[in-house]
Write a structure and sequence with these properties.
With 113 residues, the chain is an all-alpha fold. It folds into 2 domains: 41 residues; 69 residues, no CATH class. It contains 5 helices and no strands. Helix 4 packs antiparallel against helix 5. The chain is flat.
């Protein structure tokens, strides 16, 4: 048993905890392994391949649009700035970092955080 100065029943590393940790580790590794195995079976061309290529962008747009619809002027302003930066720079990663930094700055300056 692990003892940290408190009664042992609070910090006992019993069998159930180790089984849980082992089970979660196996599940996590299994999901990663399944991804590696099944990605080779995905189509490389055709409509499904085009849909899967568009999926990350669609998910990002849907997440941003939900925040814009629930938000106010600040969210709309940042959303438009990110859209314009994505069009001009053609770099989604830079646009995402710009959006995160800009919304954090504006919320801090305008008192939203």
């Amino acid at each position: 048993m692990l003892y940290l100065g408190l009664p042992s029943q609070h910090f006992a590393m019993n069998t159930e905890i180790w089984i849980t940790i082992l089970g979660l580790a196996i599940a996590s590794f299994g999901m990663r392994l399944a991804g590696v195995i099944f990605v080779s079976r995905l189509p490389q061309s055709g409509p499904l391949a085009r849909a899967l290529d568009a999926l990350p962008g669609c998910l990002m747009v849907s997440l941003v649009m939900v925040m814009m619809m629930k938000g106010g002027f600040t969210e709309w302003f940042v959303g438009i700035c990110v859209l314009l930066s994505a069009i001009v720079m053609k770099n989604a990663t830079v646009s995402m970092f710009l959006g995160v930094g800009l919304i954090a700055l504006l919320r801090h300056v305008l008192g939203g955080i």
